[in-house]
Amino acid sequence: MVKQQRAARTREALVQAAATAFDCVGYEAASLAQVSKSAGISMGALTFHFPTKDQLAEAVQARGACVTRSAAEKITAEQGRPLRSAIDLTLEVARLLDEDVAVRAAARLTRECPQAATPWTSVWLPAIEALLCRASTDELRPGADPQTVLTLTTHLITGTESYIRRCATLPEQRESAQDQLERVWRVVLPGISRNNAQLD
Amino acid sequence: MVKQQRAARTREALVQAAATAFDCVGYEAASLAQVSKSAGISMGALTFHFPTKDQLAEAVQARGACVTRSAAEKITAEQGRPLRSAIDLTLEVARLLDEDVAVRAAARLTRECPQAATPWTSVWLPAIEALLCRASTDELRPGADPQTVLTLTTHLITGTESYIRRCATLPEQRESAQDQLERVWRVVLPGISRNNAQLD
User: Where would I find the HTH tetR-type domain in this sequence (chains A, B) (predicted)?
Assistant: First the structure.
């Protein structure tokens, strides 16, 4: 049992160190030797747990996907108004991108390794699509079709991730990604909402 | 004179081949040997014209910046309503990203080599900022401050570039980036415009 716990802790440390590496320099440039060094775990143990770089990247993507999926499930279970829930989910995704290195690494790896088993977008984008379809009759103004609002939403998340990466060297001097995205939604919402809805 | 023309043609072919390489695989992974091969120009001639990879990347960024700057200057000179001009400029940037490999490479290199002499964003983003500031009193609705609309605009261009890259393997099967962005602006515009402006 103690042995199993130790193995789980080793895997955990490796996934964390790998997330930092993939987030910072991407799949190709990430060095397994550097991951092993920064996790304080030997290369032998690394290759025992993750025989290939692909398997390590897969574990990081799974971690980032799991965190994001939990957030999506929590928000979609809340039974609020669908448009508000869709916006709340984007704000939570922005917060996770800002604060969780595995989420940020998963977002990057999904672009760089499109053959991944669990693309990061697949755990939140369909939830937003479903919410926007539910919102369309009562909440979206005529002309604001759900597919175009979904495209807008995707662009806003992509832009948010890019903002975080641009400011990576001075994170304490900038507005949080969630605050910035909320500011953008306040401006955009009157254009897409039928009822002149406001964010609280 | 003939010799100068030949040198100019050689540089032109090298910049074009390098733009394709930087656009596809990024700065780090781009191979000078591959650039030389696909341009049909010897490695000796490549290093004569561009002694370092940095100098070749700089030339590609300068090309992409030059094309984009021309578009920005043309649109800002047109004396239309500032908000409409700002949107027109984003649509032109989307078209250039879709159709001009040097523009796409410049966008990518600006992210990957932030110390570049001419960051690609610096040739169009200040023009949009100036237009939005001019629009703010007459055209933007109260609450839609120019800085937030600028953040929105930046996210839309980032999202547009990401869309082009996601669909790089099947460009003929997708909506053009310009059409997609125009569709998004039609939905967003009523939220930011004071006069309930519509795109024609």
Answer: 8-68
> What residues make up the domain containing A173?
61-192
pLDDT in tens, A56-115: 999 999 999 999 999 999 999 988 899 999 999 999 999 999 999 999 999 999 998 877
Residue B79 falls within a domain, yes or no? yes
Q: Could you tell me the two tokens for B76? A: 């800002």
In a domain, B38, yes or no: yes
Show residues of chain A in contact with B144, CB under 8 Å.
187
Domain count, chain A: 1
Query: Which residues of chain B are at the A interface, by a Cβ-Cβ cutoff of 8 Å?
Result: 28-29, 111, 141, 143-145, 148-149, 151-152, 154-156, 158-160, 162-163, 165-166, 180, 183-184, 186-192
Nearest Cβ partner for B191 among A155, A159, A190: A190
CA-based nearest residue to B67, from B25, B38, B106: B106
Residue A92 lies in a domain: yes
Give the bridge partners for A140, in sequence order: A193
Q: B96-135 pLDDT, tens per residue?
A: 999 999 999 999 999 988 777 889 999 999 999 999 999 9
3-state secondary structure at position B14: helix
Residues A37, A26 contacting (CB under 8 angstroms): no
**Does any domain span residue A105?**
yes
- Which residue is listed with tokens 């669908």? A82
* Structure tokens, A111: 């672009």
